[in-house]
Amino acid sequence: MTTLERLQALLRNELDLAPERLAPDARLEDLDIDSLRLIEILFSVEDAFAVTVPAGADELRARLVTVGDLAAYIDSLLAQKANSAP
Amino acid sequence: MRRVAVTGVGVVSPLGNGIRPFFESLAAGRSGVARLSMRFEERLVCRIGASVSGFDAESLFAAPRLRMLDRVSQFALAATAEALSEAGEVFDGLDLERAGVFVGTGMGGARTTDESYFTLYGEQSDRLKPLSVLLAMNNAAASWIGMEHGLRGANLTYSTACSSSAVAIGEAARRVASGEADVMIAGGSEAPLNFGTLKAWDAMRTLATEDPEDASASCKPFARDRSGLVLGEGAAMLVLEDWDRAVQRGARIRAEMAGYGLCADPSHITRPSVAGQAAAMRRALADARMSVAEIDYINAHGTGTQANDSVETAAIKEVFGARAHAIPVSSTKSMHGHLLGAAGAIEFAASLLAMEAGIAPPTINLRHPDPECDLDYVALVARSGVGIGAFMSNSFAFGGTNAVLIGRRAP
Question: Least CA distance to A15: which residue of chain B?
């Protein structure tokens, strides 16, 4: 499974959303993901992908506009983790 | 001052969810007290409590919402939904700035706090749920109720221990009476049956000893062999409304919220005093402009502790004089346990339903009378055919905030 597919599955579970609403260009805002929901989702992302999300809510909210943005951000965290591994 | 109507009542309780099952249990003298089961239960000195069963939170709330709701808020929202369905179209044509929410709770989101501490100290993990603050904060229940209905009037949470919800109801009624609000949702909610909270109560040595033959019979208010209180959980909410408005819209007025007496007892943090309890009862009567002759039923605070029950008996005698022995006085805590911050609300609801049915609920488990407690406590079985024109509901608290409510039959 790609990161995007894993993220879509996670969002489906967390938010009771139909899969067709979770296209990469779907805006988080349109999925009712406000700053609180985003923090909740990132908590689950940390568990599911075994990564640490370093940034605060406001910064992330500005950077992460769509489902695709979030998947790409997770990929970047996974890459950082791989690079820093001993 | 305007008259205040009670046009809706809702209950989630250890005796059933909804006012009908709740009152059927009360009238049947059924106990909601049982052995609790939870993590670390073997470490509890008092392993009994009155828990809510058959409450299906998953079917009441969508999963994303449910994750934001501590059990205390779930109870409050469910009780509010019932109260509002009873009240009919209460918000139609109303400027929602004239509608508010007052909730009483002693311990707020105690379950969330307990789970968080278990994560931190028990599991040695830093993975606290990101919304823990929002679940645990004491005003969460009131806020969710206000948000669900878009109410922009005062939204307050009262925390005066065991009188919290009596205070919330009394203060809300005053807002309606003064004309500041036309509709108030008021009541209380409590969900204290978690290991950490129970251990704190254990440590105070104020909880009942489990009855060796029947755990459900462990709470024995006014009995010689009473050994303490039994904690319970649940919520009760009322819709309070400007009387004239309720009449105009053809609402079913279930009672008049007639009187509220409040006083502080500054003598001791826990020990009740006859003077303090009597003062609150007198103030409620004065507020209602009623005489003791008009009160036909008293729902006692009746915790089942040695200290409260004899003091409350003496206070009732001081206020009611000769009439004290002629009024049925019951402690429904014998059945639903002590709901702490929700106690005043659930006992007001019990009293209101008793008035409607003409049935005085019993004080169960009162088999061995205490010479110091010599009133008519409706021992063991409910009494029907009791004409109740008005009732008094007593709530006395650790910390000394005593609150008494009086409800009167709607003409």
Answer: B64
Q: How far is CA B405 from CA B76, B207, B324, in A?
A: 20, 26, 17
From B116's Cα to the closest Cα of chain A, the distance in A is: 15
Q: Which CATH superfamily is B256-408 part of? A: Thiolase/Chalcone synthase (3.40.47.10)
Rounded distance between C-alpha atoms, residue B308 and residue B394, angstroms: 12
- Partners of B68 on chain A (C-beta within 8 Å) are 36
Tens-digit pLDDT profile for residues B46-68: 999 999 999 999 999 999 999 99
User: Hey, where are the domains in chain B?
Assistant: 4-248, 256-408
- In angstroms, the CA B273 to CA B258 distance is 25
For chain A, the maximum distance between any two Cα atoms, rounded to a whole number of angstroms, is 40
* 0.85 surpassed by complex ipTM: no
- Is the model's pLDDT at B290 over the cut of 90? yes
Pairwise CA distance, residues B95 & A41, whole Å:
37
Class of B4-248 in CATH? alpha beta
What span, in angstroms and rounded, lies between the C-alpha atoms of B316 and B320?
6
Is B127 close to A37, i.e. CB distance below 8 A? no
Q: Closest Cα of chain B to A39: distance in Å?
A: 7
As a residue count, chain B comes to 411
Q: Residue B12 phi/psi, 5° resolution?
A: -120, 120
DSSP codes joined into one string, B245-259: HHHHTT----EEEEE
